[in-house]
Design brief:
Blueprint: H1 6-14, E1 27-36, E2 41-51, E3 58-64, H2 76-82, H3 88-94, E4 101-109, E5 112-113, E6 116-118, E7 131-140, E8 145-155, E9 164-166, E10 169-172, E11 178-179, E12 204-213, E13 217-220, E14 223-230, E15 233-243, E16 248-251, E17 254-262, E18 268-276, H4 283-300, E19 308-312, E20 324-326, E21 329-331, H5 349-366, H6 375-394, E22 402-403, E23 406-407, H7 440-459, H8 461-475, H9 482-493, H10 495-506, E24 514-522, E25 528-532, E26 535-539, E27 562-572, E28 576-586, E29 590-591, E30 612-619, E31 628-634, E32 638-644, E33 650-657, E34 661-666, E35 682-684, H11 695-710
Parallel strand pairs: 1-12, 18-19, 19-21
Antiparallel strand pairs: 1-2, 2-8, 3-7, 3-11, 4-5, 4-8, 6-7, 9-10, 10-16, 12-15, 13-16, 14-15, 17-18, 20-21, 22-23, 24-30, 25-26, 27-28, 27-33, 29-32, 30-33, 31-32, 31-34, 34-35
Amino acid sequence: MARTTIGLLLIMASFALSAAPLPESNISYSIEVRLDPETRNLDGKETITWRNTLETSVDSIPMHLYLNAFSNRGSSWFQKTLGERFQESTILKRFDDPWGWTEPDNIRQDGVELAWQPVAPDDGNHLDRSLIEVVLNEPLAPGETVTLDIDWSGRLPAAAARTGGYDRFFFIAQWFPKVAGVRPEGDFNRHQFFGPTEFFAGFADYDVTIAIPEGWGIAATGKGELLRTEDGYDWHRYQQKAVIDFALATGADMENVATAHELATGGQVDIHIFQPKGYEHQLARWTDATARSLDTMSTRVLPYPYETVTVVLPPRAGSRAIGMEYPTLFTGGPGGEIWDYNLIKETRINEGVIAHEFAHQYFNAIVATNEFEDAFMDEGMTEYWAAEIMLENWGEESGNGFLLGRAMNVNASSMVARPSETNYPAVWSGPSFLARGYGIGRQFYDRPAMTFETAARLFGQDVIDDVFAAYAQRWQFSHPRVEDFWAVADEVAGPQVAGMLREAYVHPHIPDYKVAKLEVKKYSPPPGYLRDGNETVFVDVDWDGDKKLGLPVEALEEDGQVLVSILDPGHTRETRTMGSIERRFLDPVGEMEGTDEVGEVESTDEDETSFYASNARVVGPDWDHLPVIVELRFADGVVVRDEWDGKGVYREYRIVRPSPLDSVVIDPDYNIRLDIVPVNNGLKHEGGGAIPKDWSRWLTGLYQLFAEGAASWL
């Protein structure tokens, strides 16, 4: 819920949407590299200037050699869960030597060669060379600067995850010796490269000169130019300030087409589409998707601060590079004929991938959280905003396009499309690279994204937009932690919103509201002695007298209100909150549709005088900040709603009235997108069956699984 105080207005004024000028970087890279397509070799040299921003002197600097993840089966990346994404068996059939690597030939400081060695601080794996420690020739005090000159050799893997290629197309990412980032806590991010997570680095200025075969197309981070052509190679130069990484793509059959786009917030961004030649008819579609993503994020979160954005749509040979983000450059889905196929040409799978990868520009590349340790921050926020981009630009009902002639709903929860175990660790568990034994898609993507979507529905879309705008404004170029996000949420939106966001991240179980029971019996006076006015009446088991005997007068509903007895068992935190049984009068909120199809309960000739005792039980996750509506629908069309605060593991309802309870529906407006099994949110008395959900959500689940299969590196 939004605050309306003067204080809040002042807070929001301070967060007016504006991108900060690109900051001065503490690191600069000047790199020269040449690609040999026949051998996949890289021959490079680089000069790194690094300023010590730590509070203590350093006598060594850790550096990442990411390509060594692909050097052998024993690397930590390969061992820890992601060997299957390398598609080892398939690649070994196609290539005698698909492996990749990188190695410094020498590292110098002021002309003096420095000692270095591989280190494995995370798992002690002596076969892993993804992290090295470079020993300086003398300690570097806080604020001082060191310049390192490195000659290095490398080899790209054959079309592996995130990077590599062969023959006529290469996507080149995480390819050069790179200084480890500095964590917000003020120490180096000394981590090896593991499969479940991605990358983290400090903001740097890049000046990169690249030699590729003459006539090949190229796309890279930042703005580029062709310098010269000599000995069969084109030498290109690309420059970009204040980014956390540098990546490029090149191919013999690729073309780079640029279109100037005027941002909705002012300023111009050049949109580059790098795709296979011969598909010019698709350019407008991908340019439009990118422009829409730019404008949505710029108007609602933060104006895009860079001058270019490049979308790489790899050919089939580069399919393992699809769906991955880098500063000012990302890969969408595959390029080429696939989007002309009748089956999927009316879907917006690729628009969705573009929206997702562009949203990464904010949370991975501008705010720049730590992917090694907090993958859920970037991935979850990105997943949420990708859906918002699709929703704003193409609408909810058919925002994901059409599959088999049916509209694909944008907001159909991806939680539905995955297995429904609830026993996951807390989202805030970490570091993220140690994730094992459960789906990282649900943990890092779905749960956070559905948290934000749920919060928007509970507290208001504008409120959550304000939180994100304030967060991006305050923490751009600053590497925040999740605690910083919660603090902004509390400051901007208040403790209820911040509490809900925090609870969703620290609670180990995924919420599941469920209707557990619905029972209906025709009312009859209970056997025994009952008072009827001033008289005592004996009721036996064969009673055939007044069938309303013993009814509370409120059951007659002369004032139109429905009397509901609600059992709340209480809940326990650090202290115990006692439960209660409350008699509550609820006003009907409308009539149930399709009342003529409602089944009867013990139909007799005297139904007009009959009353029914209905009992229902709902269960929930027992959270403090996840309130929900419980809707009671009766056979005569009357519908009443109870607002349950969600505290406690169950809640029971008893109603005696002239019509039986036909069905119970939890969350009828589908606000709790975090609910992992929404199909069990409803139960009908007739046949004891569940209330079916909108079929399109399930078909959308099929669509999402298809999209994820097409872009496994989102």
